[in-house]
Amino acid sequence: MLWTEKLKTRWNLKSGWQLLLILIVFACTGLSAMFIKKPVMNFLTDGNASNWKASMIYYIFLMTPLYNVLLLGYGFIFGQFNFFWEFEKKMFRRIFRRSAKNQEPVK
């Protein structure tokens, strides 16, 4: 089975064109995040990259949600908003389910 067919099956897609649009959305989102990262990080850290710990915290807590917003935005532009909205909800369910399993009960 081809990788495209596996993705279509896994994501429950109707056509190869829908798969192509979804892959284009992922590509546009990644490129946009790459181009936005440097100016945003320079603004937040005043161009001082010597404090890498602060830069990583800023990156995680700002760029991760920004990436998700970009993903939904490009999904809307390319007519695949419903797919990406469900994709985001599924991703966050998995994240929060894992974090809830790792917590110890309070005694």
Automatic annotation (TrEMBL):
Keyword hit for Transmembrane helix? yes
Claim: Transmembrane is one of the keywords in the record? yes
Source taxon at top rank: Bacteria
One Pfam annotation reads: DUF6787
Q: List where the protein spans the membrane.
A: 16-36, 56-85
Domain called DUF6787: residue spans: 21-97
Q: Show the PROSITE patterns listed in the entry.
A: PROKAR_LIPOPROTEIN
Q: Name one GO molecular function term.
A: transferase activity
Q: Which UniProt keywords apply?
A: Lipoprotein, Membrane, Transferase, Transmembrane, Transmembrane helix
Coiled coil regions in record: none
Query: What name does the UniProt record give this protein?
Result: Prolipoprotein diacylglyceryl transferase
Natural source organism: Pseudochryseolinea flava
